[in-house]
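FAQ: What does a ligand-bound record look like?

Like this one, built around beta-D-galactopyranose:
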Amino acid sequence: MRRRWLAAVAITMASVLSLSACGGGDKAAQTPAGGGGKKQVEVFSWWTGPGEADGLKAMKEIFEKQNPNFTFFDAAVAGGSGDKAKALLQSKLDANTPPDTFQGHAGAELQGYIKAGDLEDLNSLYDELKLKDVFPAQLIDQISVDGKIYSVPVNIHRSNVLWFNPKVLKEAGIAAAPKTVDEFIADLQKVKAKGKIPLSIGSEWTVVHLMENVLLGSLGTDAYNALFKPGGNWAAPEVTKALENFKTILSFAGDPQDDWQPAAKQVADGQAAFNIMGDWAYGYFHNPPDGGLGKKSKEDFDWAPAPGTEGTYLWLSDSFTLPKGAKNRDGAIAWLKVAASKEGQDAFNPKKGSIPARKDADQALYTDYLADALKDWSSNKLAGSIQHGVSVNQPWLAAITEAVGLFIGGKDVAALQKGLVDAAQANAQ
Ligand code: GAL
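The answer part, i.e. the structure of the complex:
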């Protein structure tokens, strides 16, 4: 009991610190009326850092223009992939003090909030805006239970991107991005021999992100997807081989950076050759210097599907919700309408480094990396991200993260595999 209490205090203190660190703690905005008698809408995410905050800002501007009676209150909590935000969110939900709307990943993660009874369904909003016609059916499926739809997906992100610095590859004598896991390992060795960082890495969640990519690249799409179905065989010898690959690849990683941005930056700055990260890195690399790095595509950075995963989109989707008991329910619905709209999605996604969830977006706005992403999304096989909430729910992800955390220390493949088997047994449904 006391331990739980201490943990809760730790979460609260951490969140207070992060809130003040991310600038979401603007005093005027925190008063219920906000500036000029306007009612604030508390929008919860973790998009505070360079790159990802840009997309949110673009949607906020549209929201405030269309809703002069509301002000946007940015309740974002710093920490890539929501590793700190989600703990604070859970404590707010438990205390019945939810934000007006929060970002939750389509798939198993969202299903957890639905099953816990945290969310209102949005069927009337879907009917009013005819949203069933504009979102892909397989996506609506991931955010529904018993015919009720519980969130508004704002984008599709790709997890399986190999970002690389073309100049560093050239110096190491690598002519093209590696297509298989074995080629990747050989290339990492070549970069190491030249004295550069072969693979940059960030905080612990980025190692889980790397692992999902190596599992997919080593096992193939069908065997990867089967891991999350009833009876998924995490003890299989193919998984052992995949985890051995993971161990080898991780042995080429540089010093762990604080989060995904500094790790990605090592590639763009030419200190590192490769980084495996989601396509939010594109917004960070490409956006002009007030929100991103302003780097040159194909010169400072380039991309390819993560080794062994060509033809598969390891996907995830950011989606906004309507929590039960939202203080400003009307304001939250107004936000959801912007998030659902073509205008909102076409402002958000080119900055966020994602493609729109809507099928009718303005394709001309998606150029360079994003044009490749649009093309692949419409033709590739699909696999669901582990780290970003599609394939596993939050308790399952927590158990996987714990096993990976121990592995980072001990590098024991058998113990990692046992941890993954146990995690699946305890949490698969
Ligand atoms: C993901 C999220 C993305 C991006 C990324 C890094 O979980 O879906 O939108 O924010 O984390 O923070």
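Follow-up question: can I read anything off the structure? Yes, for example: The chain is about 50% helix and 15% strand.
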